[in-house]
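Quick note —
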Amino acid sequence: MSILKIVHRTTFEYDHEISSSYNEARLVPAWLPRQRVLESRVDISPVSWRTSYRDYWETDVIAFEITESHRALTVTSTSQVEVTPQPARDERKSWDELSGPKFQDLLAEYLLTSPATEPTAELADFAHEAAAKGSPDDAAREICDYLHRVINYVPGSTGVHTPARDAWEARSGVCQDFAHLAIGALRTIGIPARYVSGYLQPKADAEIGVAMHGESHAWLEWWSGDWFGFDPTNDKEAGEHHVIVARAREYSDVPPLSGVFGGKGSTLSVKVSVTQLA
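Predicted structure written out below.
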């Protein structure tokens, strides 16, 4: 079990004074069976109006607007979260069960690829070869291991709108690309898979009480009887150092911060710190 304090600060500085801004923030960690939110707040400056709601994907969303002239916007999310490891998995489904009408219907949203997740023919061929050799869990793990081996993690090499195919061709990307590539490959062979966004405590033996440079992170979960989280960027199970904020089909369903403003030209800076409290 870990207790983590996460501070995520996003600042937009505009080239000129702007008159208005309308935004949504998905920054609050989720309440889950293995994840308890002990404290959470989101500070926004400036702000004229704000409200909260839960979206289709069961993500907590803060919608806010600024209707006064401003040159900068700062959104700071501060949370304390208790996270336990993933439980042992008991029930697992076979290929025949996954391909049956029951789960094809219930999990249809997590079986369709999109421009963001569509794999190349080369990656799809590898996925089918992996599926022919073992169980759905074995195939999913082999695909994730393979991506970790052949794709280089290069910060800044892609953007939030980069399709998975482009990252594959370049053999480089960021955590979002690893997640999208794995999701597309798994869906191609009939394994439901979904995108997870959140945070990662990057150092397993972090000193208690010392703030470290953290990461806004992405990984995936696949379904083979229950949902199982795996981090292909780091080639390991999602565990007590992974904090979940949102889960959906792909990044565009649950961006951390999105919106429009009345003007043009801005500079974005993001800083995440993670402190191990227990």
